[in-house]
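Our working data are protein records whose layout never changes between entries. An example says more than a description, so a record of this kind follows.
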Amino acid sequence: MSKSNKFKAWIGAARLRTLPLSISGILVGSAYAYLLNHFYNITASPFGICDIAGMMPRPIVFPYIIPILALITTLGFQILSNFANDYGDGVKGTDNEDRIGPMRALQSGIISPQEMKRGIIITAVLTLVSAILLIYVSLGIDRLLISLFFLILGIAAIWAAIKYTVGDNAYGYRGLGDVFVFIFFGPVSVIGVFYLIAKSLDWNMIFPSITIGLLSVAVLNLNNMRDMESDKKAGKNTIVVKMGLKKAKLLHYAMIVIALFCSLRLTSKIYYTKYIADGIGKLGIVENENIYWVAFLPLLAFIPLFIHIIKVRRTTSTTLLDPELKKVALSTFFFALLCVVSVWILTL
């Protein structure tokens, strides 16, 4: 086996196409933490009630090292999860000739189970080191209890990444994968990095965390719809296998629609708070009234998602759903990028 083929197999096992989705929550949480950091004299945050007369821009002192470390840590978790998924499905025989989609590393025989297990251990250790460094840089030793809480979250994330398909009690084989994906890709990712940067919580952050969480679950749900027949044969009882394709499609539509409403709730809050604050603060004189519409920019990401819904509704063969995976994942990443862009424009 040539080193070139082995290297390509490891890159394939890392599943680079899944990485943009994994960092979407970090980008969203960091963007809104930046928005909070841009103003002072605010009772709660730019999303809530503020002292309008006293609101003034302040010099930006943004800890960029925190979102950078958060991105590295999250990428580590995702690659770890992909390696573990390849290993778990490979040794259980779930990845076989019935499976639709690209051939996995263990399935191809290029990487042995022992090699993949070593890769999982090395990735887990490096990711844990990155998580500890992130917690230390963000919270130091002054907030010991909170630091311990985030450390436990990091260990839980590593456990969740591995136990999705590995072991006799793998939760991915019992239909619990959707729950864990929602928790770790949504609230843990978005609200977690928001707190590490802002050192405070804002209840409004639940809305973008739900948006990212549901869209991430939608990707998994789509993957499970595609693999429904092969999963059923292998005894992998995903939610799709349990409820059937018709109900799984309805669940898919519902997740995207709810994600849209949660996003609309937050962007509307930002628009009206920023517009009213600047308008009244300047005695009703707003130099560029149209700039505040930028708050709604992230909603553009839902245009390809609703086109996607039409495609899924019309698709009768699960084998044709494979190209839709990339569309949902990239639309979620597009949403995150638009959040960053809208915040950047609003804070100019």
About this structure: The chain has one domain: 12-346.
